[in-house]
Write a structure and sequence with these properties.
This is Protein PRD1. It comes from Sesamum indicum (Oriental sesame). One of its GO terms (biological process) is meiotic DNA double-strand break formation. Among the domains are: 9-166; 575-581 and 589-733, no CATH class; 930-1083, no CATH class; 1106-1229. 69% of the residues lie in helices and 0% in strands. It contains 62 helices and 2 strands. A two-stranded antiparallel sheet has the order 1-2. Helix 1 runs parallel beside helix 4, helix 11 packs parallel to helix 17 (301-315) and helix 50 (972-994) runs parallel beside helix 53 (1033-1056). The relative contact order is 0.02.
């Protein structure tokens, strides 16, 4: 058979076979195929020879040339011999060698490029014939043949099923073999059945007869029995694969039919008879559930996944009902799956298959709920894994399971579980913005279900998660143009329940969750603008959902947040928008929802049950605003239903118009209101129309009359106005106690006929304001101090006059002091809000009324006196001098004030009332400088008692010396001294304006014990110096201002008059020392005032100051050197330091202006110092004092051409910077004006 010594194949082998059957090998030998065939076909061949021959053949097949020659010329030659080896020899190693060779030959023939699939087909045919014949019984050789058959069928690329010649007998033998209790045989048979079935259904389709169907349901029972009893994962896997194919073909459904399929062949009949006992036993679904338990607990994940897929195939069939699912649940399959999930380590295939099956088992409803509750804790970590993967296949099913459990198993969710689930869902919402709509909807539903659990009450961590989830959910819906209706509705549901969850009584008082504020912000800032923008393109369901959600917010406990939210709605043209929705969807449901939320808005804004008329008439009200106005123009006498509708219409008009939401044309509304007044006035006069309040009608009528006045194009009915005015004269009404539009308020106060009733209402308002204070809210439309202040300052109405007349009437009629005080306080507060109001009060004679109050027996009512004085103070503080009258009223007020002050000081000392009077006197003196209150000012300045009191206070303060610094602001002495100094400051200014002839500056500059007494309110120079030197910071500040005023008067006086001021040199030196010592004071205002006084002192020609500032004046030199050093040091020229350099710069300028400049000035301002200053300053550092300093250096010859050139560049840069800033400020101002418009 073999020839191993020649390179070329011999002509014949040792047996004389021809050369065409001899194939050379790469090693130089050759193989005679006929000899090999004889060896393989002979059942008596020694196994050793057989094994050797097979190994040599295997080795030769690895050689491309040999392999190619064999397949090309002798591809079918070895088929029969190789099959004979499997049928003749019960030797496992030889069987394995043979099967391996068969597989190589088949694979080689398929991949040789010749399209030679006949080799595999012939192998399949021969092996199937052996199996069909049954001649091998169920020996080991039959097992090898089965295995070979399975290997051949494992190739699904060609129709091998057609190569099986005796299919019926083959299937019969295979099914019969399944009944053997041999795992290995059963596994091989299952694999063959699985592969043959796949080939049959793939290539034969539904046209060919399904042979296996004849064995149904026995084949199912046998397979399930094997699956249940087998402990081999390989057998289980093959069995599950075969059952999966049967499930796909509907075998399980066929097995459940009452009709038994008839058999066409005796073979099937015979088989049915032989296997009759198999049918006996539990129902198929019970057997199925028992059979899959073992594979589900397998350590092989592939077996578990295949088993889960089999269960899924079975349960997902259309013919499977909830009964089968219930059987699986009762057989604990759900528990097995939960255990698989627990041990799965969140591996994707197992998780997917498990969740799919659990989803189908949930059809068992009640039976499954208990199992789901037990396994719920297992689902939470699975949810964390699934949530991290975008578009994970079972996200939806898992969320559905969890939602079913939360809803149907109360108490299943603990506080910790709620927090964990919520955090997972929040992360999913944030991370996966483009999630599937159904996943989004389920996520929202789970969050809502968790919030409704009793364990979640007061859970701050959960509230924080819900807050984040709400924000993310809004972004997902509003940022996606393809968001569907269901997503929007679930988002609205989440927001609604989140707001309800955040009840204040559910959380600790100290908690700061902010969930309610967050939800309201989302609705106001995101949902509402989106709704108003896209309302015309929305479906009715979304509109109803938005309305219901917003309505639920309004129905919660009323608080400031709810009220602000309602105001935000109506300020966004909410009424007009919803009437537009009624135009798009005029259904009864939409109309009911719209009017219901209207009534709730009225309740929130006006008070509980104020919106009841709208709720009562909602079903009868039309959808069109024009039709609403038509109802208003009807006579409602003896028609309660129409009257109820009219009340609702007035409420809708009233609330919408309060926030400038005009739901109908102004002309039509005014005409309807007038028609309503004309037709129903008799009902009002008779008191029959109680549901329609007078205030509502008046406020609406005033508003639209105000609009008509602004436009000058809307006619009105004088008769309707007359009837309304008559009604207001006869009825008790109070429009100021309700919300009212400023336009309506202004129109009412423009009607002179209404001044008297409005005066009564103002008194009520003042009483209320005095008792509850001023709780003003910017968005509120209630009549409050701000509204009245704006009304009065507008000046086109009788508002100020009504207040003044009311106060005058109260005083004249000696009414209750509390009423007078309440009006006084109200006027004061309005002036504080709008200072211009004081001008309007004064122009309407407020001074005369105030004088009348002071003529009251005020000593018995200190509170009345204090309230009056505070109003006087506020008025004088805010009023323009031109608005103050020149009558005798202010003189009388001044006299009364000073009389009261002297008596109070004598009895109680310098009390708060006295200090208030001092402040008023100071303000009177201030106005005298602008030619107002001059007579009253003279009385103050020349009052002997006042002069004496002031002199005593100043003398006492000066006598304290260094101890005076302890009497700071807040102490009684300190406060009195500050107020007195303020009075002196204004007196010094006023005297120069109204009594210039009485001033003797020599007296003010005198010192020593023989000083002449002052005959008017003033202060001496040396007293001011003492106060500046020893006083506290506030005292220093005011005293320095007084000294500036005094020095300014002296400088002005000496410049106009030749006078010889006699001052001792020591006095001047001490004066200069005080001023110089305060140049470095930390309050720059004091330092600046002292520098100005020092500058004034150096300009007095008669005093010969030069000797005082001699070469030895080290303090002045220190000031100038410090200035130069700071200006030339690069690190010290900041904006704040440049301000503090101003006093020193003033001193330096004063010294440079002296006729004899100290020689040390030349050393201080040398060339290097000046150059350093110029180089160090930037354009932003330049100020007036610095410019004046450089100018004086130039005049005194200290600047050379180089300095001048450098300065010119700095000033040019400063000019450009100022010009640029002016342009920017102008553009900003223009932009702000544009925004305001």
């Amino acid at each position: 058979m073999y020839a191993t010594t020649t390179a070329l194949p011999p002509e014949t082998c040792a047996q004389g076979h021809r050369s065409s059957l001899i194939l050379p090998t790469a090693e130089g030998g050759s193989i005679c195929l006929l000899c090999l065939s004889n060896l393989l076909s002979n059942p008596k061949s020694p196994t050793l020879h057989l094994s050797y021959a097979l190994s040599q053949l295997s080795q030769a097949l690895s050689q491309p040339h040999f392999f190619h020659s064999l397949l090309t010329y002798h591809s079918h030659f070895l088929i029969s011999p190789l099959v004979s080896v499997l049928s003749n020899f019960d030797d496992e190693p030889i069987a394995k060698q043979t099967i391996h060779l068969i597989q190589r030959l088949c694979d080689g023939s398929s991949s040789s490029g010749n399209g030679n699939e006949e080799v595999r087909g012939e192998f399949v045919a021969r092996v199937s014939d052996w199996l069909s014949s049954g001649s091998l019984a169920w020996s080991r050789r039959q097992l090898y043949m089965l295995h070979c058959f399975g290997v051949l069928l494992d190739n699904q690329d060609c129709n091998l099923y057609g190569c099986i010649r005796n299919k019926d007998t083959l299937i019969f033998n295979l099914v019969s073999g399944l009944q053997l209790s041999n795992d290995e045989i059963q596994g091989e048979i299952m694999f063959v059945l699985y592969k043959s079935s796949i080939l049959h259904y793939t290539y034969m389709g539904d046209d060919g007869a399904d042979i296996l169907l004849a064995y149904c349901p026995k084949i199912l029972h046998i397979s399930l029995d094997i699956l249940m009893k087998s402990q081999s994962d390989d057998v289980r896997l093959n069995c599950v694969a075969f059952l999966t194919v049967l499930a796909q073909r509907g075998f399980f459904q066929s097995a459940c039919l009452d009709h038994v399929w008839s058999m066409d062949t005796f073979v099937a009949d015979n088989f049915m008879q032989k296997t009759e006992h198999v049918i006996d036993g539990p129902p198929l679904e019970v057997l199925f559930s028992e059979a899959v338990k073992g594979p589900l607990l397998s350590s092989d994940s592939q077996v578990q996944i295949a088993t889960l897929d089999l269960i899924f195939r079975y349960l997902s069939s259309a013919d499977v009902s909830g009964k089968e699912c219930q059987v699986f649940v009762e057989q604990n399959i759900a528990d097995y799956i939960f255990e698989i999930l627990r041990l799965s380590g969140s591996k994707d295939p197992i998780v997917n298959s498990s969740i799919q099956v659990l989803d189908l088992l949930s059809n068992a409803d009640v039976a499954f709920r208990q199992r789901l509750a037990i396994g719920f804790s297992t689902l939470v970590p699975i949810l964390r894994y699934v949530a991290e993967i975008p578009f994970q296949p079972v996200q939806y099913r898992l969320l559905k399971l969890m939602l079913d459990c939360i809803l149907n198993c109360p108490g299943i969710v603990s506080a910790c579980s709620a927090e964990e689930i919520a955090s997972i869902l929040v992360a999913m919402l944030i991370k996966h913005i483009d999630m599937l709509p159904e996943t989004f909807s389920l996520s929202c539903s789970i969050l809502v279900a968790i919030m409704k659990c009793s364990s979640s009450r007061g859970n701050e961590s959960l509230a924080a998660s819900v807050k984040n989830a709400s924000q993310s959910a809004v972004s997902i819906c509003l940022d996606n143009v393809q968001t569907d209706t269901d997503q929007i509705l679930h988002l609205l549901y989440l927001l609604k329940e989140a707001y309800a969850f955040a009840q204040e009584d559910s959380f600790p008082i100290s908690s700061n969750v902010g969930l309610r504020v967050c939800i309201i912000d989302i609705l106001k800032l995101q949902m509402l603008p989106w709704f108003m923008t896209a309302i015309n393109d929305m479906e009715e369901a979304i509109i109803l959902g938005v309305i219901e959600t917003l309505h639920s917010i309004l129905l919660q406990d009323p608080n400031d947040d709810t009220k602000n939210f309602a105001e935000c709605l109506v300020s966004s043209s909410w009424f007009s928008a919803l009437f537009g929705c009624l135009g798009l969807f005029p259904s009864e449901k939409m109309k009911w929802r719209v009017y219901l939320i209207f009534s709730s808005i009225v309740d929130v804004l006006l008070g509980v049950d104020f919106g009841q008329p709208i709720r009562d008439a909602a079903l009868h009200l039309p959808s069109d605003p024009t039709d609403l106005l038509f109802l208003l123009g009807q006579k409602s006498i003896h028609n309660p239903e129409l009257l109820s509708c009219q009340s609702a219409v007035l409420l809708v008009l009233y609330v919408s118009s309060l926030y400038n939401d005009r739901i109908a044309d102004d002309k039509l509304v005014l005409a309807s209101l007038e028609q309503f007044i004309l037709l129903n006035s008799s009902d009002f006069l008779c008191g029959a129309s109680e549901s329609v309040t007078i205030e509502l009608l008046v406020n609406l009528y005033g508003l639209y009359r105000g609009y008509a006045k602004l436009s000058y194009q809307i006619p009105y009915s004088p008769e309707a106005e007359r009837i309304l005015f008559q009604l207001l004269a006869d009825k008790d009404w109070d429009s100021l106690s309700t919300k009212i539009h400023l336009t309506s308020l202004r129109w009412l106060f423009q009607q002179e006929k209404l001044c008297k009733p409005l005066s009564d209402q103002i008194l009520k308002f003042c009483r209320c304001n005095g008792s509850i204070g001023n709780n003003y809210h910017e968005t509120s439309q209630e009549v409050n101090l701000h509204a009245f202040a704006e009304l009065i300052t507008s000046g086109d109405n009788f508002g100020a006059m009504v207040f003044v007349c009311l106060l005058g009437e109260l005083v004249e009629n000696s009414c209750q002091e509390c009423d007078i005080i309440s009006v006084l306080k109200t006027c004061k507060e309005m002036i504080e809000i709008a200072p211009v109001a004081s001008d309007h009060f004064c122009m309407h004679g407020m001074d005369g009324v105030l004088q009348s109050i002071y003529n009251y027996p005020i000593y018995d009512f200190p509170e009345l006196f204090m309230a009056t004085s505070q109003l006087v103070f506020s008025t004088l503080q805010s009023v323009q001098s031109e608005s103050i009258s020149d009558g005798e009223a202010w003189v009388g007020i001044t006299v009364k004030l000073m009389d009261y002050m002297f008596l109070a000081v004598a009895s109680d000392g310098w009390t708060e009332e006295v200090l208030t009077i001092v402040g008023i006197l100071s303000l009177i003196l201030h106005h005298s400088t602008k030619e107002a209150l001059m007579e009253a000012s003279k009385l103050i300045i020349l009052n002997v008692s006042l002069v004496s009191s002031i002199n005593n206070i100043i003398s006492e303060a000066c006598s304290k010396g260094p101890a005076l610094s302890d009497h700071d602001e807040g102490t009684r002495i300190g406060d009195v001294l500050i107020f007195v100094l303020l009075l002196l400051f204004f007196s010094l200014r006023s005297i120069r304006a109204i009594l210039p002839g009485i001033i003797d500056f020599q007296i003010l500059l005198d010192e020593g014990r023989n000083m002449q007494p002052l005959s008017y309110v003033s202060i001496r120079c040396h007293d001011l110096c003492k106060l500046m030197h020893f006083g506290s910071a506030p005292v220093k500040l005011i005293a320095s201002f007084c000294l500036v005023e005094l020095f300014s008067g002296i400088s002005d006086y000496t410049s106009r008059t030749l006078v010889d001021l006699k001052l001792r040199e020591g006095y001047l030196s001490s004066l200069a020392a005080v001023l110089e010592g305060l140049i470095f004071f930390n309050d720059v205002r004091v330092a600046l005032n002292c520098s100005l006084c020092f500058s004034s002192l150096t300009t007095w020609r008669e005093l010969q100051v030069e000797p005082m500032i001699s070469e030895k004046d080290h303090w002045c030199r220190l000031i100038v050197e410090e200035l130069v050093m700071s200006l030339s040091a690069p690190s010290l020229t900041t904006k704040s330091l440049m301000i503090h350099h101003k006093p020193a710069a003033n001193v330096a300028v004063s010294l440079l202006k002296l006729s004899k400049i100290p020689s040390w000035m030349t050393k201080v301002f040398d060339d290097s110092s000046i150059r350093g200053i110029i180089q160090n300053i930037s354009p932003s550092d330049v100020n007036i004092e610095l410019v004046i300093l450089f100018r004086q250096l130039l005049v005194s010859g200290r600047l050379n051409p180089s300095h001048i050139a450098d300065l010119n560049r700095v000033f040019q840069a400063c000019r450009r910077q100022v010009y640029t800033n002016d342009i920017q400020d102008s553009s900003i101002e223009d932009h702000m004006q544009h925004v305001a418009v």
